[in-house]
Amino acid sequence: MKNPDKFEQQTSGAYRLVLIIIALVVIILLGGIYLYNDPDLSYFKNSGQDSELVEAAGDMDEYNKVENGLHVRTGLIDAPGLMATVNNCTTCHSAKLVIQNRMSKERWISTIRWMQKTQNLWDLGDNEEVIVNYLVTNYPPKKKGRREVLTNIEWYELKK
Q1: Which CATH number characterizes residue 95's domain?
Q2: Are 102 and 135 in contact (CB under 8 A)?
Q3: Using CA atoms, how far apart are residues 25 and 56, in angstroms rounded to an integer?
Q4: What confidence tier does 153 reach under pLDDT thresholds 50, 70, 90?
Q5: Is residue 98 part of a domain?
Q6: How far is CA 59 from CA 29, 82, 136, in A?
């Protein structure tokens, strides 16, 4: 070999060309597999959900509708502090999580601190007092057990 540098340039060029061809073949194969599994290419079509969200957000009266004392979208009780609670709590989790947890003021504050420490909850500022008051007023601890005491029962004796 008279010129090893020229040979090295030719082989590295051929190597790059082979890599490009392999990459194109892989891309074409992946596209073919996708097309085989989804021939309508539905992933790339707008399903209309985005427009529904825009419409819902555009009609805030419907979006924040309250019926029978409940906020329709979340199921939370309509009371002072509702929207502050909805805006700060339901961005991260379902309102059902709020509804099922009934706590004292200290426990609600402790839970907020835990979320701020471990779940990246932002500083609520002045909204914290509004939210805690809303939660304590509408979702306090229940004083009764799982079910009420049974009353007016006609007991009978089992016969052997």
Answers
A1: 1.10.760
A2: no
A3: 44
A4: confident
A5: yes
A6: 45, 18, 30
Q: How confident is the model at residue 46, as a pLDDT? A: 62
Residues spanned by the domain of 121: 79-142
In degrees and rounded to multiples of 5, residue 151 shows phi and psi of -130, 165
Average pLDDT over residues 80-85: 92
Number of domains in the chain: 1
User: How far is it, in rounded angstroms, from Cα 141 to Cα 104?
Assistant: 6
Q: Does residue 20 have a pLDDT over 90? A: yes
Rounded to the nearest 5°, which phi and psi values hold at 142?
A: -85, 140
Q: What confidence category does residue 64 fall into, taking pLDDT thresholds of 50, 70 and 90?
A: confident
Interacting residues of 34 by C-beta distance below 8 A, sequence separation 6+? none
